[in-house]
Amino acid sequence: MVEDSHKLLYSIDRNARYHARRRAFLDGMHRAILFVVILSGTAAFATFRQKIGLFGIPPEWFAVIPVFLATADLVFDLSNKSRDHEFLYRKYSTLLVDAVKSTEDEVQKWAAIKVRYHEVLQDEPPNFHVLNAACFNEIVDTYGLNQAQKIRIPRHVSWLMHIFRFENFRIS
Fold first, then answer.
1. What is the DSSP letter of 55?
2. Within 10 Å of residue 67's Cβ, how many Cβ atoms?
3. Which has the least CB within 10 A, 3, 18, 127, 145?
4. Half-sphere exposure of residue 47, counting CA atoms within 13 Å on the CB side?
């Protein structure tokens, strides 16, 4: 029972971390896109970029950048995806709080938490596998688990873990 409850606690914590990281990434991307869209659309920046040709990019291309980025932000719906992860993060955080509270009937508590955990899992979007592996590695460090359990993630893959799902990522 104790081992099962620890595994459930680790899963809940890993999922909370996963959604916190997804939310932060998506929020950051949304804000960065909006920053570039607004900046590149201002009259002062338009005058500046025509005079110097910023980064060697022809000034005409700067008219396309805000349209492209704003369309991408709208199509990929970054802000709403971020809110979805916020919602799931809050659910997992509530489960974590309930999991660490002591009760007289621990067996019943863990059974109820397991049911609620599986209810939250139903709302999960498709998983970003490398990000999930990185969150697992955080759990290993946080709870002082055997370091041999950590998943090796190549650096070039970790840079792209929020962009691509890496569905065929081999866990080693």
1. G
2. 12
3. 3
4. 3
